[in-house]
Write the structure tokens for this entry.
Amino acid sequence: MTAALPAGLKARLATLFPGSTVLSAMAVGADTGCGETGKQLGYGSPLRVALRKADGVQLALVFHVARADDYGHDRRSDRAAEQLLAWDSFPTVPGHARAVDVGAIAADGGLVPLPNVDEFYLLTEWADGEVYAEDLRRVDARGAVGPLDLARAAALARWLAALHRRPGTHSGAYVRAWRDLVGSGEGIAGIVDGYGAGAPGAPPERLSRIEAECLRWRQRHKQRTERLRKTHGDFHPFNIVFAPNEEAPILLDASRGSEGEPADDVGCLAINFLFFALEHRERWKDGLGRLWHRFWEVYLEEGDRSVLEVVAPFFAWRGLVVCSPAWYPHLREADRDRMLRFVERVLAADRFDPAWGDEALT
């Protein structure tokens, strides 16, 4: 059927093909087949455009606009990645229809071409202060906490609890959070693949068992969409900044769509109290152990006790990160084994108990 030609596309075609005339524009319909081979769903809404170039040669083009769905395209960044991947991939496939242009649609409907770009960039403000990792190192070194240390642990718990009271946007985001946890390049599968075959304390069969157990957790809990909340998505001590003598955190690098399972953020931070305590385990009780317990105490008091039922595979993910020889090459084999034993224990139980942090460090 005939469709209106977007003004932005019309202007872009005039630039790409000077002197050309648009002859028609038609929406490409869905599959008209029936029976078992009838296709119901597609990933875009293409528009077929016929034009006559200045030299009289007729040309047919297809204008592709990706649409949101629950198959990994729910975020705008997903849809941008899809178009850029097509631009990079089409020329590498023999006999493939040629890609003519790639770009973005501006807020006013104009087209912003991107065919000559390389990598993308992001410019942000600088956050004055010190990353929370330095707090954890100091506490571990002296084996004691001060009032500010305890106040910051409590403040982080309250900050997360407040964020986690905000609802997410759509139930598919919760399912995706569990899928990304297990199967994405930044998730469990990608981290496991980065270990290689010779990591001391982490032979491939051990990692495979952990990965398989996390998959079972996904199958059990991915439909608990009532737990969908706003999240930070990468709430670790290098993404948390404190100004001198301040309790209120400044956050960096929110990730993964910033919505999903709250246990993601909780496990991401909590695993680091254990990890940073490995060098001086004898100081755990009066040092980082007090921050571990203060964080859990305040977060659970704020209301989300069900987090204990789902945090295990998120602990596994972050535990695999801190045990990774690629990410932390100086970790001793005994400490890698200790952290992976903690991961295995939490995965084997239906509900997490914060007291297990004490046992992991003894």
